[in-house]
Protein: EmrB/QacA subfamily drug resistance transporter
Organism: Kribbella amoyensis
Amino acid sequence: MAGDAVPGVHKESAGQRRLALLLAMAMFVLVVDTSLMNVSISSVVRDLDTTVSGVQSAIALEALVSAAFILIGSKIGDLFGRKRAYVLGLLGYAVGAIAMTLAQGLTAIIVFWAVIGGIGAALLLPAMQSLIHGNFEGDAQRQTYALVGASAAIAAAVGPLLGGFITTYLSWRVGFLLEAVIIAVVLSGIRLVKDAPYTGERSIDLVGALLSVVGMGGVVLGILVWQEGGEYVGLLIGIGVVGLAALAYWLVRRHRAGKATLLDPELFRVRTFRFGISGQLLQQVALGGAMIALPIYLQMVLEYNAMQAGLSLAPLSLSMFAIALLAGKKAGKRRPSGIIRWGFTLLAIGVAGLLPLVPRVDSGWYLVVPLLVAGSGLGLLVSQLNNYTLSPISEERVSEAAGVNSAGGSFGLSFGLAFTGAIMLAMLSFTFTSLSDDSTVLPPSDKERVAQALNDDAELMSNTQLKELLADEPPAIQEEILRINTDARPIALQVALLIPLGAALLGLGNSFRMVRIPDPVPSSPDGPVPLG
């Protein structure tokens, strides 16, 4: 009998390994989808005879829909089945990918890619994390969270490079077709997924759902408008914050009355959950900040093309992926909170190491060491944070917890991208004006005009592109403007890198609080959420 038991164990282990790989593939597609769309904008505009603003609006709408409905998506997983929500989310993404492959106009992109795909993301993210929680235990659960986290991280890092390669040498339609093929492969293994049943309250909190859409949607819309340099940013974010505050009040009030809530406010009494969500948000702020500042530095200052910039960032993405897998497998008895502390420490050291290099280097090779250090830190973080946050949560509440966890990560990434970009452009504007005013070469009557021209036209140009723009100016004026541009860029990029550095340092401080409390104990399938 013992001899018959061993093959069964191996079969189960092989099935779990395949399931973990399929979940990682699903996460990779989810993250790389937006990168592919971003780098394909000009090609999509040309092929579909549409406008840049139209395609950018579709990208913003997809992010807005997925963020606004993510808490509702987690509740749908509870009410109709986490496995079913996972399948519907994948199908939503497949519909969007196929629509992009066949699209002949902007309407198809908006309806199928932005709206249906955005709803698919809102269903897929929390359902995926819930299913990891329900299908794996112990070391296998920790390793799967690490693998899926590493897959998301490397997709965020290499997505622009991969998308740029496919768009340049093949077609943007091929990229989206490949997404649909990967989703088909993921769905082919759906029989490996064991549903995680929900036995809690099945009533629907309509007011909570509405407030979550207003709150999440308002904040994300404000961030998107901020990123695009639009107006009413403060008003939109204010509406979102008021909506989230009203949601919190409503949830507490409903819970005390013993009525159904969109999510259980008791979750936030779990200290490991609160600290884990904070760590997740700060890690994503740092990643988003680095992912906008570094490519701009490489392309605008070192004048790399997209492929060269992507290769220069490979030390960050590859070390992130490798360390996440290694830490997931080799963590052993080490405290997750201790690993998280080391992750934020290495991330802070790596980003800090970039600051003195930015104004001095003329090649991406000089960035390899700090990028390896920062990537190793991010790898340690993605290997631990999801498991740290969700492992103590009971099956009954894990969808709600996963929805909040996903929302925190999405907000952090969006905020990191938008805030770092806004700070960089604001610093460029200030520095352009200051250096123009101090110039002894520019005529006094031209200083304001030159500063304004640099603000409007040169902020995302390399010196070579700027030189072409200045072809009609006298040589002395050309040299002075190029000098101002050359001096201003590194200062702005250094200031921009302070955002991911600040997030890393805040995360490090948060990790010391984690270390002072007991590490989370994984819940049993029917166990309660540990409080305190």
Observations:
- Confidence is low (pLDDT under 50) at residues 1-11, 525-532.
- The chain has three domains: 14-194, 205-260, 263-521.
